Amino acid sequence: MADALTARAATNPRRLAQRKKRRLAVVFVLPALLLLGALVVYPVLFSVGRSFFDAGGERFVGAGNYAAILHDPATLKAIRNSTVWVVVAPLLLTGLGLMLAVLTEKVRWATAFKLVLFLPMAVSFLAAGIIFRLAYEQDPDRGVLNAAVVGVHDTFADRAAYPTARAREGHGLTGGAGGPYSTEETLRPGRSISLGFVGVAPDAMPAGAKAAADAVAGADSIAGAVYLDFAPGGAGTPGTVDPGEKGLPGITVEAVQDGRVAATATTADDGSFRLTGLADGEYTVRLPTANFAAPYQGVNWLSPALVTPAIIAAYLWVWTGFAMVLIGAGLSAIPRDALEAARMDGATEGQIFRKITIPLLAPVLTVVFVTLVINVMKVFDLVYIIAPGPVQEEANVLATRMWLVSFGGGNDQGLGSALSVVLLLLVVPAMIFNIRRFRRSGA
């Protein structure tokens, strides 16, 4: 009996110490729990409850908002876009991260290379969205991507000589803006004709342009001049070549008979041309559209068909460094003796990569992929900033659709809450999977 009392007395201080530790732990954890409850638990529960009420929150509609999700074309489009994001972006990022992580092990300046690739992670999504919104501008003078595309295009394709030129009305030429232009009357060999144009700015005239001069036609040719029918100071007579008016060099002129091009010529520096080798008959002189076509403006990156791939590309720019660093950390943990043994056995680098590196990296690749899936489901900033207003609906994902429905003009917080619950339900399984993986790796 005395021994039992002694043992109990000895354990009481130990129990008291444990209770004090628990109370101290509660004191330290309580603020975090309160904050977590106020910022996470309460909003989630409130959103779940709010999703069962109408837009004003006054009438209980049950599952009506969830049914509306399945019948709203804009919401279905957002679900489709979210599916594209989940399938494409994590796969591309994981693949790019793996490829870059392997490459960085084989370059001398690996640290600098990783730093450059990881730098976009330091840029906020707002800033990244603005950067890519400007980069995707269709005007080549503002959008860097289209400036590059137009530069490459113009290197291999001839630009129209006079995209703003138009024929002087009522003076022998017919045709709409941008061409082609044809003579109103037919001409026989031996005739000459002057073709006047307006709408060419002085700074758009070629440097080698000379004073306009008519060419003399031969027995088997039609000749004439293509010129800017505007004399300095506004003097001169429309439809005739006046002193001070310049020729338009480099314009293609065709002689057409029965729909077939019989002869072609290019105007000289003074605008003169001569269509030779013509048999006797009636011909129409034509100036093709290629002379007046509008300049190539590049790709409309933010068109309805390309806006989602364009935004995904911006997302890849931001997150590739993240995937590369995580996969690189896993790659550095692979035992080198396994790789060296494979090389000694005659395995190629490709075989080592497929049969040793990837299987050993599988847990890391899975964690990176699932983490990116969770992040992609919540993407909002880039979509909202990069997509212009007219194509915003084509680019919407669940997060942007939820915001637009609730606060961006829809004012239907019941449907917005239902969308937020759906988004939460989609994210939770991936989060649970990731947490279990971390626990297993920790064990």
From TrEMBL:
Q: SUPFAM superfamilies this protein is in? A: Cna protein B-type domain (SSF49478), MalF N-terminal region-like (SSF160964), MetI-like (SSF161098)
List locations, semicolon-separated.
Cell membrane; Secreted
Q: Which UniProt keywords apply?
A: Cell membrane, Membrane, Secreted, Signal, Transmembrane, Transmembrane helix, Transport
Protein name from the UniProt record:
ABC transporter permease
Q: Which InterPro entries match?
A: MetI-like, MetI-like_sf, Sdr_B, UgpAE/MalFG_permease
What's the source species for this entry?
A: Streptomyces subrutilus
Topology with respect to the bilayer: Multi-pass membrane protein
Would you identify the family this protein belongs to, as annotated?
Answer: Belongs to the binding-protein-dependent transport system permease family.
Bilayer-crossing residues are 24-45, 83-103, 115-136, 314-335, 356-374, 414-435
Per its UniProt record, what Pfam families does this chain match? BPD_transp_1, SdrD_B
CC annotations in GO: extracellular region; plasma membrane
Q: What domain of life is recorded for the organism?
A: Bacteria
Location of the ABC transmembrane type-1 domain: 79-434
What biological process terms from GO does the record include?
transmembrane transport
